[in-house]
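Collaboration report, partner site 2.

Our partner group contributed sequences for two proteins of shared interest, and the home lab folded both. The records are reproduced in the order in which they were received, starting with the first partner submission.
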Amino acid sequence: MPIGTAETPVNEAHQPGETPERLTTPPARTHRWGLGAFFLTQAVFVLVSVLLAAAFGSPDAGTLVVMLMLPTVLAGALAVLITVVRGNGPRLDFGLEWRWSDVTTGLAIGGVGLVTTTIATMLWVRWVGEDNAQSTVSGLLDGVELPPVVAVVIFLHIWLIAPLCEELLYRGLLWGAMERMRWGQLNVFVLSTAVFAIGHLEPERTALLLVIAIPIGVARMVTGRLTASVVAHQVNNFLPALGLLLISLGLLPA
């Protein structure tokens, strides 16, 4: 057979036993969602939060768990659904897969972030006062007696579940939408960090949330995948979640 047929062009000829690069390197798969997907998840989060607040004016322990968990979980689940319907799934679109290198990177950066966040929180409390430095979740739980099982569920949500869901939104959908617009990584990092801080809808704590978000965004940027930022976020949330658990169980003063 002459060289240069349709099956083997001249410029792609290869030695016997070799596999052409074009057959071993899969084509890049791009997603079909953008900023609208992120805004949709934010709208769902806000709408569900408002509806639950209107339905449960003075929540008991059971409804308190629903009010804390349902908006965040629904928004995170919607983010995953969007990647499945309009993309390639969270593993390819977000890089959400188990890699020890990402886990160790997330633990290392999250540990550094935990130290800086703790110092920043102490300074922030001294500057604005304890009442103004209180998070929305802390305010919602203030003075509420929780059964041990409920307290543990809320602890696990704040420590593990909420960081995962928030990362799906901010360093997943939002990050990916800006990458699709061909923004530089530094610009994506800066804007997603700012939106994360503002999106918590806690104006008194926005500056503190910026400090909290920086190491989490760094973990996403240096690895290029979501797993590291999820782990870093969970490390950052561990001490606040543990503090709320101990207060709820009466082991620490409120």
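Second partner submission, folded after the first:
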Amino acid sequence: MKDYLCAKRDGLTVLAVFLLLIAPMSLFVSHIELLDSVSDSEGMFYGVLTNSAGTQGFLMTLAVLLIGSMTIGMTPKQRWEKFVQLGIILVIGFAAKTGLKHVTESPRPYTEVLTHQLLIPKPAHFYQLTSSQQDQLIEQVSEQVSPWRTQHWLGETDYSFPSGHTMFVAICLVCFGGVFMENKRYGLVGILLIWGVGVAYSRLWIGMHRPIDLVGSVLFIGLVYAAMPNLSIWSDRVFEWLKLHKRLSTQ
């Protein structure tokens, strides 16, 4: 058990640091006024951050991190283990996100704005509407809310808990951050953490999540990562089979 946890120590350490950094974000939420005007530079900045962990940009982010990890001296076996681990956690994370949203049914913070503007009686009512009706409501409030925010509201009308963007960030931190930490690339770890905190705050700023959504997402990925079996045994078998196949093909 000790060796099992030691193998995951670096990834869990990076994730723990991230959790400590985003936990106090509840102190800043009260300062975020979703009806405030937004400059183009501010809106673009938070939009790029949030999209880097969303459907628009997560593949690009993964590509950059994969290329970065290639510069680190790992054996083919170690690289295979990390990539398989990454794939498994991504599948579990994205599948669990959808399931948990339907179980918790937590309204997104922007539905409170719709309620305050007297467009709906209460936040939960938003989810009883059709997709076109939801879009119409958001467009109605667009006169009071910056389009830098409402464009994201229109694209995400599902429930709030957990945060899929923060889940993706947490996955990148345990997988890539752990590799960088293990190889003493502390500068890369720092850059990854700054990006992660930026994405997390962008979700609050846009009005998509509450701090509990972020913390819950990080804890869930941490549990999934900690519970993952050691892939060394399987990778040993795969590489032994590959060596045997290569030897037989050359005879």
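Feedback sent to the partner group on the second submission included the following. The chain has two domains: 9-25+55-101+161-246, 107-158. Residues 107-158 form one domain.
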